[in-house]
């Protein structure tokens, strides 16, 4: 599949293309809960949820006190903006 321009809002991407995009960035889809994804990078680990109107990200143990940090990003943001915000880490 060919992704739309990186400046295209994520809501203009078909779901299979969003899933392929997440896989290309190292995401692993949960086999039981298909809207849930895990991403592990050398310095951080996160869980992502593809909700109805946003992507929710929880960075595991990333807070200064070891607590999780959770953020949400609306699908109206471009794929490029979401990628930079989510995959730059907590």
Describe the 3D structure.
The chain is α+β, with helices and mostly antiparallel strands. It has helices spanning 15-24, 79-87; strands spanning 28-29, 36-40, 45-50, 54-59, 69-74. The chain has a 5-stranded antiparallel β-sheet, with helices on one face. The protein is globular and about 40 Å long. The N and C termini lie far apart (30 Å).
DSSP strand tally: 5
How far apart lie the N and C ends? 30 Å
State which percent range the strand residues make up: 25-35%
Low-confidence blocks of residues: none
Number of helices: 2
The overall pLDDT average reads: 94
H and E order = HEEEEEH
Assign the structural class, choosing from mainly alpha, mainly beta, alpha/beta, alpha+beta, or little secondary structure. alpha+beta
> What would you call the shape?
globular
Estimated radius of gyration: 13 Å
Could you give a short description of this structure?
With about 90 residues, this protein is of the alpha+beta class.
Keywords:
90 residues, 5 strands, five-stranded antiparallel beta sheet, 21% helix, 2 helices, alpha+beta
């Amino acid at each position: 599949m060919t992704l739309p321009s990186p400046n295209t809002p994520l809501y203009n991407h078909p779901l299979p293309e969003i899933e392929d995009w997440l896989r290309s960035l190292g995401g692993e889809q949960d086999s039981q809960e298909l809207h849930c994804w895990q991403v592990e990078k050398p310095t951080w680990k996160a869980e992502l949820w593809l909700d109805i109107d946003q992507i929710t990200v929880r960075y595991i143990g990333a807070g200064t006190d070891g607590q999780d940090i959770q953020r949400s990003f609306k699908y109206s943001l471009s794929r490029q903006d979401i990628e930079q915000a989510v995959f730059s880490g907590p």
